[in-house]
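Consider the tokenized backbone below.
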């Protein structure tokens, strides 16, 4: 059976009490913490830097931290986030002058390397770097803001990547999807071939903030995708 990973995006958390929020979401069943790092340059909006990652480690967060760099350039931030305690670091191919070198940099610092694709970005880059990545991140919304609606055409892109991994016998590479994932669509997203799900507003933007119930419902839907 597929092992599904829920990556809680703290972009939608209450940033005034981030340590408490992060602890609560992990206790509720999230597997990893997802950082949406935006620079107000490569994408609109400005979010987290390495100091926030380091602060969560000092607070006592030991769960894996998954850093998605929506920035340009990327290499200096790769180094800084690795030092701050990141486990996974992904970047967009358009944001690096030398994709192969940036991927090697991530791995040389002891982190898992990921390549991220916007909805309209072709997958051609993968042909040349599959041996250097541990994670493929597909954006199912246009990056820059939380709370957007899932782009339906992303399903076919997920299927294409999953088939690529199967045909190359590289199913150890994680396929992560980020954007608009909710209880009513997570089953279809999983059935298309996703194993890691970035979920933000669906978890945090809840009136009563019953995180455990929300994550349990998500996992119930995921279980149905394998039947």
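A designed sequence for it:
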């Amino acid at each position: 059976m597929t092992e599904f990973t829920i990556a809680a995006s703290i972009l939608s958390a209450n940033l005034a009490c981030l340590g408490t929020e992060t602890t609560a979401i992990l206790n509720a069943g999230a597997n990893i913490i997802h950082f949406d790092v935006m620079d107000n340059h490569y994408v609109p909006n400005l979010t987290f830097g390495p100091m926030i990652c380091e602060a969560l480690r000092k607070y006592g967060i030991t769960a894996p931290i998954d850093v998605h760099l929506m920035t340009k350039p990327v290499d200096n931030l790769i180094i800084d986030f690795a030092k701050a305690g990141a486990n996974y670091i992904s970047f967009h191919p358009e944001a690096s002058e030398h994709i192969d070198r940036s991927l090697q940099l991530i791995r040389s610092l002891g982190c898992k390397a990921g390549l991220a694709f916007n909805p309209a970005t072709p997958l051609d880059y993968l042909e040349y770097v599959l041996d250097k990545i541990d994670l493929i991140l597909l954006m199912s919304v246009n990056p820059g803001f939380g709370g957007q609606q899932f782009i339906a055409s992303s399903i076919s892109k997920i299927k294409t990547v999953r088939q690529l991994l199967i045909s190359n016998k590289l199913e150890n590479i994680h396929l992560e999807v980020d954007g608009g994932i909710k209880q009513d669509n997570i089953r279809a997203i999983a059935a298309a071939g996703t194993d890691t799900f970035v979920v933000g507003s669906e978890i945090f933007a809840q009136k009563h903030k019953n995180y455990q119930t929300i994550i349990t419902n998500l996992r119930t839907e995921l279980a149905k995708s394998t039947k």
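The beta strands are 5-9, 32-38, 65-70, 88-91, 112-117, 135-139, 174-178, 196-199.
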